[in-house]
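Pair request: fold both.
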Amino acid sequence: MTQGSESVPSARSSRPAADSVLDRFERWARDTPKARAVTAVPGSLTYGELDVRANRLAHHLLAAGLPPGGLVAIGTARQTEIVVAMLATLKAGGAYAVLDVETSGSGPRRLATLEPFAVLTHAAHQARLDDGRDLRFIRLGAEAGAIGERPGEPPARAGARDALFQFTGAAEPRAVVVTHALLLAALEAWEAVARPTPEDRHLITAGSDVTAFTTGWTRALCSGGTLVLPDRGPWTPDTLRAAVGTERVTVVHTDPAGAARLLLPEHETPLAARPGTPVPRQGDDPARSVRLLHITGDRLHLDQQAALQARLRTGARVLNVYGSTETAGVGTWFELSQLPGPLDAPEELSLIGTPFPGCRAELRDGQLYLGPPDGGDAIPTGDLARARPDGLWEFGGRIRDRVPLDGHPFDPHPLEALIRSHEHIGAALVAEVEVGRGARRLVAYICPPPGGGTWLPGGDLPGSDQLRDHLRGKVPEERIPRTVVRLRALPRNTAGQEDRAALPRPPRLTDPATPVRRTGGKYSPATGGSEFPIGCATGCGSIVFGFMALIFTDVLWPGSTELAGIPAPWAPLFFVLHLCECLAFGTGLMFLFTGRPRMREQGRGAGLTAAAHLAVVYLLVAWWPQDNLYRLAAKHDWPRQAALVYAFNIPLMIAGAVVAAYLIRKPASAFDFDD
């Protein structure tokens, strides 16, 4: 379906000239048709080829009856096709909304809040977007013959006001309308700060339905640059690093976690991460071509920004950009050069800097309001902030994260900043968890610094006692978390934001009045008083069932354990084998009744956990009947031998594969617990 750079009439050529992001793109397509616009495998396109394909799809939409300002929903995992579809929709005078087809249920839920004229998708993704309504689905690629059917220009029509519908990242996302004027103003504000060039190669790590992508594509394609896209699906840490190095990416648009994955990989030595700290650069660093790291989506602390800055080449910039969906992703920006001088406790500060050109920031009752770059009314962000004496804005947390503590709203952001000032903690979240009978407790979720690797028991992450010592005297005693959960990494949503709703509930968390028994060292999980009786009962039950199996062996398989014909010293060895088989059978039966609750705590999914639980049971109980039946089968009784192989050995192999899949799958919320 890749087309050449032949000229195709623009679907908007008869519209009165007006400056917009689409006009900007079309100028580059007209002036530099052979310049690379999109790089992907497969799907790399020049500006001329991209314009041709977008025009064809625009004609197809108009032929299908797209009304002026009509909404077109786009749902596919192929980001090259998404770019084509967004441009085509604008060319046809419509507005677009990009849907997530990777996350189960996300697409239909968001689609149900819209009234689209049509849904652009591929056959592989159509079923994921069907919300039960009688929607018009248009398959991407069906526009290939549209130009031949309609060689002339489409009918003249007035330019649409709205460019796109973008969903917010709130727990209950809502659609926000982004106008053409706002989209262009946001682009111009960003260009004034970032100063892009046609030689730049841009890579956006956010999902295709996130504001950073649905509005961020303009920063590459409206400045003559190249947009580097993944093959299919989202970026992974490995493909991200490979693409940045191979494609010599110069501008990376990402979130704090994505920046850390790119510049501070887990296998490298953790950084002290303080402004002015020298950091060795790797000779094969894939980010050596990056001149601008544009970070948005979540809070970025000053020490993190300094560590990222130190990993880039001299003269490269790290921008911490704060914006909202309503402002098309711009609002304020900060880089280290704005600091008037060194600051104390950089690990506790998250600076969001000064407003973009055309934007404004103001406080109302502690909440930050942003004025969009198109001159519209200031919009509440839902975030707390303060204006510093040096003229910079400082992020103060999110209102939605407040928890009621002792009848008063408690903002966890300052406490989380204090927690991460511990030298072995890279990130922290504090949540209030119910512990029973109406009592609630503050829980601290912590993970190691970027570049520190995956934490393992016995590592450097502190426990609850060490955390109390670190916080004592800095915060009131009642606000010091009594429980610590140590995570490999904080959970994040598709927009790169810390996802508090996905935090795991600590296992066996009890009421504060309930005595807690510790079972070992400082990193041992807390357990209740019932742990020992349960373990004792499991062991005793295994012995009882094993003894019963030993008794019933001669009843079920007479002669299978006969040792008279076996010479010494082999007979005692086979008797021990019989005992082990019976004990394994008893252990398997007890694991059948007691093992699944413990396995579910690993968070590997209900279906896989159930399969692995039954597989372990089978691996234990099968030896007792299997060996007894084998001993009674004649060596050349091939029908019986084949029946035994397929009845026992094949299921044993399958059970082993299931257990292997369970073990290698990363838990949804892998953590260690200290109370």
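--- second member of the pair ---
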Amino acid sequence: MQNKGKYYITTAIAYTSGKPHIGNSYEIVLADAIARYKRRDGFDVFFQTGSDEHGQKIETRAIEAGCSSPKEFVDQVSDTIKGLWNLMDTSYDKFIRTTDEDHVKQVQKIFKKFYDQGDIYKGSYKGMYCTECEAFYTESQLVDGKCPECGGPVHPAEEEAYFFKMSKYADKLIEHINTHPEFIQPVARKNEMMNNFLLPGLQDLCVSRTSFKWGIPVDFDDKHVVYVWLDALTNYITGIGYDADGNSSDLYKKYWPADLHLIGKDIIRFHTIYWPIFLYALGEPLPKQIFGHPWLLQGGEKMSKSKGNVIYADDLVSLFGVDPVRYFVLHEMPFDNDGVITWELLVERFNSDLANTLGNLVNRTIAMSNKYLGGVVADKGVKEAVDDDLKAVVTSCYDKVEAKMDELRVADALTEIFALFKRCNKYIDETEPWILGKDEAKKDRLSTVLYNLVESISIGAALLDPFMPETAQKIREQLSAPERDFDTLSEFGKLPNGTKVSEAPEMLFARKDLKDVLEKAAEITKKQKADFEESQKKAAINLAKAGLAPAPAKEAAPAEGGSDEKAPIDIPAKDEISFDQFGAMQFQVGEIIKCEAVENSKKLLCSQVKIGSQVKQIVSGIRKFYSPEEMVGKKVMVLVNLKPAKLAGVLSEGMLLCAEDAEGNLALMTPEKDMPAGAEIC
């Protein structure tokens, strides 16, 4: 195998506020697939992940959980995170914790170095603070009075703090981004950072806190703890042996700068602005690339325990197995748009792609080899034209996958691999081994056909290995095929003649019954809801014991008559219309397949709405009530034949129907039962 040099890949370190859901787990699986692929492709890979364990939110969560200290709490959660990463068969080389002693010491050294060279100064901060994101915001940065990152509540905060002079390095960073187009991917993330943060001008960044204690102490001013993001971001260098005094390890000298920081799109600002500026101040090179991947949404909505729509990796594994879950999250995530996970889609992918396309292919090939050839396959040289097409598809697959992986288009790489398996299935239909097996004179042709299939599948298994390692290993074992280096995959015929396949092949994937899966999923959801409610009760009790219980929420005044329901609304009557006038309006059910905020508008969302076989673009003034992520996947009622018009310069080809209450709150009108996109509303 050719040595292609070093490759250092990291994930964001998981925040220890609770158990990661499948959307969080997606990132570690994605990073693992890339790391495994690079290793197989000849790179010397170092793969780091870990847990982020400091901050005000952790301090509060520890109290809610009834732990004796924040350290006890993060020990438990970090073990849970590590357990999930191991369950998902991830091959990380280092799991760093920000409570690790060597990390703590280096963060203190880094903070002092910044202070000594004049990058940090003491002042006081007054602004709006989001506890969930551990971040301050100005009034102008808020969206509808809420956190621009998570959409949660913010509160006024004022305290003494140290500040980092961000503007000192801003121009240097802007130049780097402009001259290194690959630095921030996808391009939309780069544009967002440039236009929303860097070009308008950076404010100095608060890098210490005094209002809580669970953090790394500033060793020369013990009233302060280091801001959690300065602490967390430095893990990428402390984990491989960086030393602020100039005594960095050989590991650091070998692997830094990182080749890829893989992170969620919600923390792109911290990684593409704060982190590079910190590195400039340290005099260290910037990472080569930062990829802000999209979210995995549950039925079109961001996962939330309070919504009861959270799915965890271990629950999925209990129903489908590790490799099918890996396949699903990798295959269903587009390069730059959010992916969607539903139980129905999981079953569909499992049955169609895994059970039918791949599992059935392997099982049929082995069964026919045993039935007709005693399990022994060999190339007898009896060729036909159809063989050439199969071999061309198989031997070109590596180059296609390589091109997709170079662009981090992992879902597309998987599609290329499964195109190989689909071509093998087609080859079986074209050559009809069951017909050849009835004619003794065609036994050599049959042997060649089955050899071609075993060789093709073994090449496909080699390419599949980074994504579904357990499945790839099972295929190799059942075919008795040797493990293939990537630099041999363009050569057809490396399988030794006389290879004997397994006499008793194991079914790789048994088809799933949707009804059975939905019943089990309902049980999982019911248990999660009960556990969440119990944890909320426990948290309230523990907060009260600590004297930190929040004031009870003010109850809304009941409507007249003592009912808790909202009072009915009367609106002025409009002129009556004829049946013909009503009949001229066309209402249909639409499915929102994509949604984005309209630039330079605080009110408008632009949705791509599937209506039958068409997709219409509809602009709606509902941004205050729905996020773009919440919109995707919704079935809505649409006035289809409204004359197109431009809103804020964006074409709108219809209208989404909403209800409005007395306070002006809007709610989308949705069908009571699941109806197909395009169904007429009459």
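Observation on the second member. The two ends are 65 Å apart (CA to CA).
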